[in-house]
# Entry
Amino acid sequence: MAKEKTAIVATGQTHHRSSRLDVNGIELIHEAVTRCLEDGELTIDDIDAVVIGNMDHFEGINYVDTWSIDGSGAFMKPIIKVTTGGTTGSTVGHCGYHLVASGMFDKVLAIGWEKNSESDTTAAITTAFDPIWDRLVFAGAISGLAVEAMAYMVKYGATEKDAARVAVRDRKHATNNPYAQLRKEVSIEDVMNSPMLSDPIKLLDVCPRTDGACAVVFASEQYAEKICDRPAWIHGISAKHPYNYLGDYDWEDRLPSMQMASKELYAKAGIKEPLKEIDVMELYLPYSCAGLSWIEALGLCGPGQAPKLLWDGVTDMGGELPINPSGGVIATNCIGATALLRISEAAVQVMGRGGKRQVPDVNTALASGFGGCFWSDVTLLKSTKPK
Amino acid sequence: MAKEKTAIVATGQTHHRSSRLDVNGIELIHEAVTRCLEDGELTIDDIDAVVIGNMDHFEGINYVDTWSIDGSGAFMKPIIKVTTGGTTGSTVGHCGYHLVASGMFDKVLAIGWEKNSESDTTAAITTAFDPIWDRLVFAGAISGLAVEAMAYMVKYGATEKDAARVAVRDRKHATNNPYAQLRKEVSIEDVMNSPMLSDPIKLLDVCPRTDGACAVVFASEQYAEKICDRPAWIHGISAKHPYNYLGDYDWEDRLPSMQMASKELYAKAGIKEPLKEIDVMELYLPYSCAGLSWIEALGLCGPGQAPKLLWDGVTDMGGELPINPSGGVIATNCIGATALLRISEAAVQVMGRGGKRQVPDVNTALASGFGGCFWSDVTLLKSTKPK
Amino acid sequence: MAQKQQDQELLQYESRIKVPYTWSVGEVGSRFLMELKENRKIWATRCPSCDMVFVPPKKTCTYCFSDIHEWVEVKDEGVLQTFTVVRYETPLIPGKPPYIIGIIMLDGADTGLVHLIAGVPHDKVKVGMRVKAVFEEKRKGHILDINHFKPI
Amino acid sequence: MAQKQQDQELLQYESRIKVPYTWSVGEVGSRFLMELKENRKIWATRCPSCDMVFVPPKKTCTYCFSDIHEWVEVKDEGVLQTFTVVRYETPLIPGKPPYIIGIIMLDGADTGLVHLIAGVPHDKVKVGMRVKAVFEEKRKGHILDINHFKPI
Ligand SMILES: [Zn+2]
Ligand SMILES: [Zn+2]
# Structure
C-alpha cells in the first residue's frame, strides 16, 4: 500500500492551557498551523491537502473541516476530517501519511485540536457509548479505564504505588516541555494522597482537560529533504480497533489491541527487541496504570514485569528507553490533538529539535494512540529513509 | 492523482421508509450491505476496505465506523468514517473512489446511511451552524434553502409554479422505483396548495425524512469486469465547498459551487455540451426550486431558462435528459445515504439494472451531492473505460 | 415507547442528549460584540492583502490566509440581499413563527450578515430594500444585541 | 460570561445542545428486553458458524458476519470479571456515587455484560466473585429492568 517514502518534515503546537478564552477554536488551530509552517519554512501555498480531526461533539461543531478553514488555511484545498475518539490524533496522522504514501499528494498538513474548555467532557464522552446498552451505565472515560487497571492489578499483583511511579515520571518530564499544560513535579506520596476518582484511579493518575492544537507536515521523498535536513521517516503504522462494547474486551490480557498493533509494526519494520532497538517512545497513556500494562503489550518486558522496569528508571530521561519526554498525556490532553502530539513529539525527537526535552541520539522513535474501546494505533519513525 | 481506473461494480439499498423500528442502525446498514454484496455476487471476504458515513449527530452515535461493524462487516478491516453534512454520501463515494484510484485497495465498500427517525432533524441540523454567529438565527435546513430560492426567483422571474413542476416530475418518477419512500404522484395544484413552510418553499416542494442505507462497491480495473459485466466507470469527480457562513454566499448567482464543480468535471471528462452528451442525471435536489437554478449551474441551459426546459419535458423520463429516474431526494432522503444513492442510481443506470426506472441506452450519467453551506459534489460515470 | 410487529414488540429507547457548551468567542469576536453592547456600533476587520471587509470580523482571511489587524467601522444599515418568512415552528428559535430571516449586506462590508427582519408586514419585504439595525435597550455582548433589522 | 484580558473583555457564549433521540432497539434487541420485562429471563443469540453466544444479542456475528437466528437462554448469574467503585459525580448516571460498575460474564455467555454491582460493601467486592441479577419489580423493557447484580 505504501508506494511513496514519506517523512514528517515540520511540526507545530500551541502552548497548551486548561482554557484559552482569547481564541476561538479556529484561531487556536491557526496558532499550531502557523508554527508548523514556520518550522518547515513553508507557506500555506506549499500545502497540497489537509487532514483535520477532533472529537467534534466536544465542541458541538459538526462541519469542522470547512468551519475551520480560516485556521487551517484549507480554503479550496482538498481537506478531510476524521474522528475516531481518543485515537483521532493518530488517525489524523495515519491519514496524512497515507495521503502522501499512496502517491496522491506530496505535502499534507495534518491537524489535531480540541477545545476541551467548551463542554463537559464527561457528558460528551458518555455519548460515545452505545445508547441502548452501555451508555446507561458507564459515564465518561475514567470508569472504563479503571476496570482495566483493576483487572491488571489483580492478575499481576501490581500496586497503586507502581502506577503512581508512571505519573511521577510523566509529570517530571513535563517540566522540560515549554508547551505542556501541567509542569509541576509530584511525588509518589502526592499521587497516593490525591482523591480517589474510580478505584484504583486517583486524581493525579489521570490526564487533564486541555485547549490545544498540533500540526504536522508529511512530505514525499521528492520534497522531504528539501524541507527538513533530518526528516522523520515513517517506517510503519498499524491501527487495531477490535472492540466495540466493553463487554467484549479480554480482561485477562494486557491491551490486546496494542499487542496486535505493535507485533504488526515490528514485523513491518524488522524490529526484534523493541527495548533495545527503539530510542524513545511517546505513548498515549491517559492514566498511570496504562504505563505498566501497555508497555508489556508493547513487548518491552514480560507479563507483570513493567513495575520493575519503571522503578529501575529504564523509562526515565537518561534511561535505556525514555518514555514521554514531553510529559505525555497526563500533562497535556487536548484530546483530538493528543495522539497527533505523540507522533509530532516522536518526530521532534528524531529531528533533534526537542530542546530541554531532547533525548540524545534518537534514530528510532515509536508513537502510540489510544481511544474508544481499548483501541491502539502505533507509528514508527526513523532518521533513516525506508528501503 | 487517479492512477487506477476505477468502476462501480455492485450496488444495494434498503427499501426506504419514514421509520424502520424493526431494525437498529447497525441492522439497517446490514441490509444495504447484504444486497450490495449479492448484487456483485461477492462475500465480505472480497472486500479490502470500507468507508462509511452519516450525519452522526442525527443518531447521537459518535464512533459510527466501529459501532457499525456488525452491519458493515468491517471487523478488523481498514475502515474510515467521513461526515460532511448533506454531501456526506458523495464524500463517501469520492472517498471510496480515491481509495481504489490511488492504488491503495482493489475492492472498497462504500456505505451511506441515516436513521432520521431517531432524532429531531431540525434540531440536529441547527447544530451544524456556527454556534456564535449563525446558529442563533437560522434553524434547520429549510430557511437556508428558502433564501436561495427567493433570490433566484426575484432575479430571474421564475415562479412557485415553475418550481412545483420539478416536484411533480420527481414524485412521478418515484412511482417507478420500488425502493423509494414516497411513491405517490402529485399535481401542480397539490404542490401549490400544500402548506407554506418558508417562503417560497411549500410542504410538497421539500424532501422527507427517511430511514435508509445504501452501499456501493468500487473496484480496480483488475477486478471490475470480473465482478460486473457492464461496470460503471468513474470518469471524473469534483467537490467544491467554498462557503462556510451563509453571509459569504453569492446570492446574485446560481449555486456557484455547482458551476465550479461541473466546469472542472466537464473539462476532466471532455464534455462540451452536457445536455446532449449526458444521458441521465441523478441530482441531489432537496427542494423543488433547486431543480431550476442548479441545472442552470450545471450548464444545461442559460440563466433563467430552466423553467422552459422543465415545462418542455426535457428532463422527464422519455425526454432528452431524464433527471432523477429514481424520484430523487424529494421522494427519499436518508441524509447520509442521499448523495451516495445518487451515485448508486447513476451506476444502476449505466449498468442497465434500473428495471422500471431504467432510462434506455445510458452510456454517460452524472450524479451530484449537495450539503452544508451551498456545497456541490459531482461524479461522472460511463459504460466505457477511461483512457 | 413500543410498536407491535406481528407478535413482537418493537421498542424504542427515548432519551435526550444534553451537553452544556461554553464557546470561546475569542479576542476578535469579543471586540465586535462589546462594540455592539457598549457603543451600538458594528465593527469589521479588513484584510491587508485582498481588502475584504468581514462582518462578523475574522482574525485571518479566508481567501488569502493573511493575518488581519485592521478594524473598520461599517454602517448599521445596508441592503437586504434575500430573505424568507419562516412559517414552521421549532423550539430552537427565539420567537414564534411567522418571522423573517434575511441576509443583509451592510454599507462598507463585503460579507452578508444573517439576521432577523421585522417592523414590516410580511408581504412588504422585498429583496434589495434598505434596512437598519434596531438595537436592544439592554445589551449583553451578543449577536442578538441587535434585536432585528427594520426597513428604512 | 466574560473574562478580562488587559483591556479586552473575552466573551464566552454559553448554551446547551439538547437534541431528543428515539433509538430503535430493533426486533432482536426488543426480544431480549421484553424477556427481561415479562419473564425475568436473559436470552442471548448464538452464531451458527463460530458458536459465540452474544449478550446483549446480535443479529449478525461481529467476528464472521454470519446471520444469527438461534436464541439461547443464559443464566442470570455469572462471574464478575472486573469492576470499579465510581466516586466522582456526574449528572448522567442514575444514583449518587459511590457506586460500583462491573463487567459480568453470565454462565453460558461468551461476552461480558456491563452493569451495576450492589448489595455488598465496597471493600468486599472482588474480581472473580459470583453475582446474580436482581430484577426490578416494575419492569419496562430496559437494560435497567435488572436493577443491579448482587454477590451470591
Ligand atoms: Zn485576504
Ligand atoms: Zn460467528
In short: Chain B has 15 helices and eleven strands. The domain at 6-120+210-227 of chain B is CATH 3.40.47.10 (Peroxisomal Thiolase; Chain A, domain 1). The longest helix of chain B spans residues 335-351. The first strand of chain B starts at residue 6 and ends at 13.
